[in-house]
Structure formats: structure tokens, C-alpha cells
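User: Could you check the structure of this?
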Amino acid sequence: MKMSINRRQVSRRSILAGAAALGLTGTLAACGGSDDDSGGSDSGPVRLTYWSWAPNMEKVAAIWNKKNPGITVTVSKQASGGEIVSKLITAKKAGNAPDLIQVEYQSLPTLVSNDVLADITKYAGDTKSQFAEGLWGMVTLGTDALYAIPQDAGPLMFYYREDLFKKHGLTVPKTWTEFAETARAARKAVPDAYLTTFSANDPGLFAGLAQQAGGKWWTVDGNGKWTVGIDDAATKQVAGFWGGLVQEGVIDNQPMYTPAWNNALNKGTHLAWVSAVWAPGVLVSSAPDTKGKWRMAPLPQWKSGENVTGSWGGSSTGVSTDSQHAEAAAKFATWLNTDPEALAALVKEVAIYPAATKGQSGDVLTTPEFFSNQADFYTTAGQIAATTAAAAWGPNVNTAYTTFQDAFGKASKAKKEAQFDSALATVQSKTFADMKKQGFEVTEA
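Assistant: Sure, the predicted C-alpha cells are below.
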């Protein structure tokens, strides 16, 4: 049996087109009744299940449950990343997906194309006004639908050792051209050190840098036709820039999150780190001897005077198409990510940086212990977060990321700029081929 999707808006039909081509939607409709947008009856006591990997999320839900005895939310702890995505798709096929789902932004198109996430536009009210435009674009997928409420944000920033920059007369770069100059100056001043490293083991950072440069890796039109443009001009610029610095020998090429990388940060042989707002938590364990020596600044810009950043990480709260209480679920998702008490609890208990603008300031956001010399850390972070560009994710991010790790891993080891360019072409071709194989109507930019 094939699911009838003619009652959905064109925007949703666009996202579902690939799944329909595979015949997936027939199975999904038979199990989930996803064409019924009534949201179920919420007249009696409602019990909702929320799949989340975040620590202590049950403590935040407890605040809601105490105030809303008619709608009880039970948190079910799950793994993150690709594991929860696969589990959700399987659950949807069986017709028993949870009511509420914690979803990473890059996973949204995959779950939408498998009809796991409901369009909750009619329950959102004026929620849009509480988030930066770029973040809101990540949960609408550039359409007129709404598939989740933003929960936490990961705006990119530039972290640097303030003490070492002063010692060696280094300048905090405001543009990427200045970044390259600082990398060269650092190498001259401290021959056994580097400004930072290019790492291929976490594609999220490179994706965020491409996002800042204006890269649009996936786009879809109103007729459901996708375009893959991972090797667009903006991303080529980013790949060539980093490949050139690695080839020149002024940027290191070792992967992040290894003992060697930790040691480089801790001993100061890496003087800086391009990372996201959550970096202080990593530094606590990776570079314990450097407390109070770091400072944060906005990400360097491609053009002087610009003010835009990318994102690395972050998640949202969605409602599944299996939920019989979509309205109640959307009410909780909105409360969780916009209510002042909920936002404070997310910061305190879950240790996230809220996506909601009003959650990015206030007493609950105490200066990170590693940045005791920067009392305005979160004030600056909020200003940066407001400039986050919208990401353009597609339904096979996992394929792109896996290919990236392999191709760029080899390129960084080879230390050849040309190989960075060819690695990007490889990610493009394999991502496009995978979408075509899955049955999506797709072209290349």
C-alpha cells in the first residue's frame, strides 16, 4: 500500500519525495497513520515518551510534570548520532516511534524523508521570534513547515591562548587572511608549535566552516528535486584554504580528541582552536593545566566587515508522526526550549547552550571556569550566536560525513592542497551517487 501524500503541503511532499520513490512511505503509512494531522485527543490524561541522549533531561521533564499533571513526560535515555536515527526509523516502521525526539539538526532531513517527524507548524504560535533566523531555518529545512523546536546551539568561535599570543606578539585574526598570517607568525615565533590543526575525524567542524562561507550542500525545490552542491565555490574556498596551510606547514594535520591532541593543547604547542560554544567543557579535560589562559573571539571572516558564523553541533525537539497527542507533545517541546525556568534547568542540569535567544544571557550562564579572565564570555557568545548562518542539510549526511573522514583524512596526511580539492570532489560524487541509488530525484550543482 502506498501512502497518499496529496493532502500534505508541497513543502513536505518535497522532502518526502525520495522516500516515496523507494516505496518506504507505504510501509510507514500502514504502521503510523501519518496522514492524520489531528494530533489525537488530549481531553484526558496524556502520557508522552521522550527519546533523548542528553544527561539529566529527566530532571528538566520533572519540572514540567509537577506543573502539568495532565500531561506526563517520561524520558527514555538513548544513544546519540546515527544510532538513534536508525532506531527511530525502525520504530516508525513498526508504528511505535516515541512522541518526542531529540534530533540533531543534520539528522532532520533524514527523519523527515522517512516520515518520522510531524509538521507542528499549527502548534508553534510565535515561537519563531524567540530564535535567531539561521537556527530557525535549520528546523524548517527552508520550507513552510516546522519539524522541531531548536534546543541548543553550537555557534563557531575562535579560541586562543591569551598568554601565548601576548608573549609572542601574535594578533587575534579578524579575517581568514589574517588567520593565515597569524599561523605563519606563530610558526616562526615558536618553531615546535602550530596555531592549530586541521582535523578530518569530525566533519562537523568543516561543515560549519563551509556554512559560514555560504556553502549550500543540499537544497530541494518545490517539486521534490534535490541538488547536491558539496563542492560548491564556497566550500572549495574553505578546502583550498586549509589544504594550502597544511601544505605550507603552518597548520598541523593531526586529528582532534587524541592523547597527542590533548597534549598539544595542554602544553601550548597548539596555540588556538576553532571550535564551538561548548569548547570550554572539552578544555577542562583535554588541557587541565591551561585554566584561565584562554580567551574567545568571533570567528574570522572571509571579508572584512562581515559578521557571520557557522555552527558545529546542536539539537532540537521534534514530535513523531506516530504520536497520538501531537498537540500536547508540541506544547512540551515549546515549553522545554522557550520557558525561562526550563532554559535555566537545561543549562544547569544538561549543560547546554540554549538555542533560544533569551536563554543566552542571565545569571544562570556563569562564566566558564577556564575563562575566568573573560567575564563577558556569554555576552560575546550570544552576539556571535545571533549571526549563525542557516545550514543546508540533506537526507544522507551520514554518507557525506563517512566519505569526508576517509578522503580528507588521507589528504591531511599527504599534506597536499590538491588532494584537499580532490577529497571534496570525492565527497560530492559519493553523496550524489548515494542519493541517486536511494531513489531521490537529484542533480548536481
